[in-house]
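Sequence and fold
=================
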Amino acid sequence: MALQFSDEQFQEAWRELDDPRLEGGWELFTSSMGIQIYRLYDQDSGLYEYKIFGSLADYPPDVCAAVYMDLEYRKHWDGYVKELSEKVYDGQTIIYWEVKYPFPLSNRDYTYIREMRELKVNGRRIWVTLAKSVSIPQCLEKPPVIRVQDYKQSLAMESDGEAGTRVYMNYFDNPGGMIPSWLINWAAKSGVPSFLTDMKKACKNYAAFQQRAGS
């Protein structure tokens, strides 16, 4: 399966840290906790694609990147995780992720690939992670859980010059089903600050988790 990401996709992600590309309909959606969220309307789905710019104070990018990539740890700090694991199909490592949705909505699940690279750019160290959904026929759907068919994310992180991390994220997620688009878009507005708060707590507690896991 030819599922890898291109070098240019990694380059495009980190360049947004220096030169945000917001032409073509992007609008400021909300600003909170030092984070600016922009959105772009998708005509086909009635949903929005998002770009997030900001910083995570007090935690360096290598720690943030390690926390973000550690699936086992995420099961401890992300309360929305129902199931999260790596699976191998035809020699390709796939991530399976089931997300809890509030009653009466059905849970959603994802099959996706991701890759992280640590780039060196003119003396800078930048961690870039790319992810996208893929269709894996061998990974059967589990009704009433609804399979998300259209998901993508890119993330770039580097030092803010002090103790924290500059962050850029771009994502689109169509959960499908019968959820009104206004509710999905509202959840995005409240969910990003909440996720970043949880991420900060996870960074703070990561060293202790690694100690316990290694003992």
Remarks:
- Strands lie at 27-32, 35-42, 47-56, 81-89, 92-99, 108-121, 124-133, 146-147, 150-159, 165-174.
